[in-house]
Structures are given as structure tokens and as C-alpha cells.
Amino acid sequence: MATTPDMTTAPPASGRGVLPDSGLLDDLQHQVALFARRAEQTRLGGVGQVRNTMDRAAYLLLNRLDKEGPMGVKALAAGMGIDSSTVTRQVAPLVDTGLVKRTSHPEDGRAVVLQLSPRGKARLEEVRSSRRQLMALLTEDWAEDERDVFCTLLTRFNEALSARMAAAPPPPEAPEAPVS
Fold this sequence. Notes:
Blueprint: H1 22-42, H2 56-68, H3 73-80, H4 84-96, E1 100-104, E2 112-116, H5 118-138, H6 144-167
């Protein structure tokens, strides 16, 4: 198990506790950057024939619909922290391939609800199974409590990042170029 890092005594600007030393923070940001690159390179595709057959956006959309049930584009976008137009663009191929169904809202027939189709559910389970195998392979020499701690900390990190992004003001618009 890792040792406790050295801590500085100056409180951070937020006033919440003590900051880890900058070397640890440098190591952490570097490891997160490496993880992001490797995850994108492999798309954490799993093992076997299903490997790399579903992109990240499709997986996350199908997973949310599976876990939370049918919902509209706006609710799906809000839950994922992305723009409605992005969800619409990402859902279109899932509808075209029969993984997601568009249905009328039960209370407001004018509204559209997105729902995981039986084919989408089966496909998602194939990908989940393949990815579970990959996680088992990558952590085969880890103790069960190490997997649990890693998952807990990664979840906490993702939640903190999500909260930070939700609280951040939108980026400033680029100034318009002068017309010649």
C-alpha cells in the first residue's frame, strides 16, 4: 500500500485542508493524462471479438439509458453534463442501428423519449462482459480490497471532476475577427 504523501502547511486558496506537495500533484496529473491517452487509444474495449467495437460515447449513452430508463434528450444531456445537440448527434447512429428506440412520451405525445432497445441491451451486455474481462485481466494480481479502493477513489475523482466542470463558468467566446 502507498505511503502517505508529504503535505505542505499552507492551506489552499479554497481554505479546505492541506495541499499535497507539488511533486505529488505533478505525478497525479501526469498519471491522469497517461490514463486518458491509453483509455482513448484502446477505448477500454475489452477482450475477445467484442474488443473496440463500441465507442465511448455510445457506451456511456447506452449505459445511462439502461441504468436510468427511458428519458428525453434534455434529461439525458443534463445527466451526462453535455449539450443536447451533442446527445442528438450521438444518439442518431444508435437509433439507425436499432440499439436505441425513439418513442412518444407517455404523458405528452409530442415529446420524444429515448429507450434502450432489446438489441441495445444485448449489445451493451456483450460489451460490458468484454470490459469486465479486461478489468479482471488488468487487475489480476491486485487484492480484492485494492480493486475496491481504486474503484472508490476513481469514482470520487470522477465525481469531483464532474462537479468542477458543472460549477465552472462557460469558456469566454473568442473575439470576432475584424472584417476587412
